[in-house]
Amino acid sequence: MPPWKVENGRGQEFLQIPLLSSVSSSAGREKAGKIRETGKGSGGISIPVPEPPATASRQRAFPCGSTGRGDARMIKQMPGMALVALLLALAASAGAAEGEDLAGLRRHALELVNQARQAQGRAPLETGADLEKAAQSHARDMLKRHYYSHTSPEGDDVRDRYMEAGGSRWDLVEENIARCQNCGPPATAATVGQLQQGWMNSPHHRENILREGLRRFGFGIVVEAGGGLYAVQTFAGPGTSRGGGAEATSDALSGEALSGEALAAGAARMINEARAKEGVGKLQPSVALNTAAQALLPDPGSETISLGSSQQLRDAVPEDQRQRWRSLAVLAGACGGCGTQPTQADLRFFRQQWLNDPQHRQQLLDPVVTDIGFALQANGQGRKVALLVLGTAR
Q1: Which residues lie within the region annotated Disordered (predicted)?
Q2: Rounded CA gap, 44 and 145, in Å?
Q3: pLDDT digits (tens, 9 = 90+) for 358-389
């Protein structure tokens, strides 16, 4: 059973399936690389969706000089005097104001986040019960077990918590955390305002709050006399298309949604550009192979991605075209948190991922291959699956 190869991206995950057995060749070999999960199923290759890695989360430490245990590259402290002033304000507001229930604090946290987003032309977020549960459980766990990190002592991260609370494994998930060691109960709306101010004053936390491709928000906060205050913001949504960079900047259509025919034509063009750079002949777009690729796509609502067997690959080709091919092969990939509509940026992303893998690169640039077919599925919730069928004519 060939495994998925997991390529970690920022807040997303790219899944490559080794070469499916072609009509005339043996099954794909197991590749070197980080293997997350190998699935088993009936009727050929059926790979359970692996658990994607945690997103590039951000944390901000409010206690004097403490930054907690997180990704040090993501942490940027406020200037010393501003941080001290914020600490004093937090301590004062937490200890002096009337207590408010958690639901009220959450409503206020969402209001502040949406005010910040709307000021920058971003769509407002809605409350997510799964995100609230994940945020509150993490805040409570940090307080109870005396640690400060996006990762629990057992190694669970924001995505693990989100999925345990019922969230989709294909969402883009972000997290901001904060701690105030000198704060005591009760937590109030003023406390939430100071936390929001601190996160907005930090470039990386601000980036999470204002990120495009988010739809829902959760907030958690716990405070205990002698134990301090812990607060968590969680965000989730379908994300946005990958495949940026200089090439995308020069492409006016990079972010526009594309139809099936335009996607297939764009994929053929981009693969041929890569082949031309290596001095390899041009592939011919094939309607029959486009049809085969489309037929092999999974159900948009499925929790597994199944490509079936080499016989199913052959059967996916229109009957009157099956004898035309000496060999057929499939390259497949999937990403989560990468937007709701198929775009040229997606084509660029999948092409680059395939070219970065030695086995897939060899297949894409094989001078013996003559024809190409392509299909891309977006389920509207952040998951995209791309299938490339390569044929060698008789």
Answers
A1: 24-67
A2: 45
A3: 999 999 999 999 999 999 999 999 999 999 99
150: Cβ contacts below 8 Å, ≥ 6 apart = 54, 57, 59, 70, 71, 157, 158, 175, 177
Residue type for position 326: R
Residue 301: what pLDDT?
82
Say whether both 292 and 375 belong to one domain: yes
154-195: per-residue pLDDT in tens?
999 999 999 999 999 999 999 999 999 989 999 999 999 999
59 membership: H or E segment, kind and range: strand 58-59
Please report the pLDDT score of residue 203 as a whole number.
Answer: 95
Range(s) of the domain holding residue 270: 260-393
Q: Tokens 């980080």 — which residue?
A: 34
CATH code of the domain in which 382 resides: 3.40.33.10
Q: Is residue 110 included in any domain, yes or no? A: yes
Query: pLDDT tens for residues 87-123?
Result: 444 544 443 333 459 999 999 999 999 999 999 999 9
Peptide bond just before 298 cis, omega within 30 deg: no
Contacts of 316 (CB under 8 A, 6+ apart): 291, 292, 293, 295, 296
